[in-house]
Amino acid sequence: MDARPRRVLLTRPEPGLGRTSAILRARGFEPVALPLSEIVARPAEVPDRDIVGYVATSAAAIAGAGQAIDPLLPFFAVGSATASAAAGIGCRDVRTGPGDAAGLAQVILRSDIGDKGSLLYLAGEPRKSDLEDTLATAGVALRVITVYAAVAIEPSRDGLVETIGPGLGACLFYSPATAERFCAVVEKHGLEKEFGTVPMLGLSRQVIEPFLERAWVRDTIDSAPIPEEESLLALLETIRNKAG
Fold this sequence. Notes:
- This protein has 244 residues and is of the alpha/beta class.
- It is 38% helix and 23% strand.
- It has helices spanning 16-26, 59-65, 80-88, 101-110, 130-137, 157-164, 176-188, 192-195, 205-212, 229-243; strands spanning 7-10, 30-33, 37-41, 51-56, 75-77, 94-96, 118-125, 142-152, 168-173, 200-202, 221-223.
- Strand 7, helix 5 and strand 8 form a beta-alpha-beta unit.
- Helix 2 packs parallel to helix 3.
- The N and C termini lie close together (11 Å).
């Protein structure tokens, strides 16, 4: 019998939570859901004039903007999941970044789209300003509208305790904000010792930074070599194999 740890804590919101859970089950893991936020659409008027293309750093942006997106304009997506969502609503010219904001900025700058007019950033809250700052410094005109928000969910102490055992093999994180929120609730409920021996795995180096600042995290802290989910899940497989 395979005794390697199979239970994996997922903190991301829907719809990504359900999608990742299905992938993990298919690979022999047992997903444990503990969403720390909920994606809520923010009604916003998407301008249809003087826009030469769209920018999105999350698939939630496509759900938020919906049919207001002109499928004939170029669409710059941060990674494959966002690109798939854009293609799913009929966008014909989808340009995919490597999975992070810095890489997406370079994809935009290598194109000539930004020279023709304003790009529309379909943004969420909260967010970091890295992408906006990089494009502004390069002289790219970027209009920003907020089309969704990640609203925090506060888990109970009992809810956290239930996720720990038996055999919690790893915790997966997809955003720095979620990782920071997880650390805060663990500390609030005094569960540092219980979670300190569980590997914390993130989609990128930026995502795992909150754990690097905590002395109570004593097990593996690692990030996917490529900021894409498949790379993160490959890292999870490596952790499981080492445990075997």
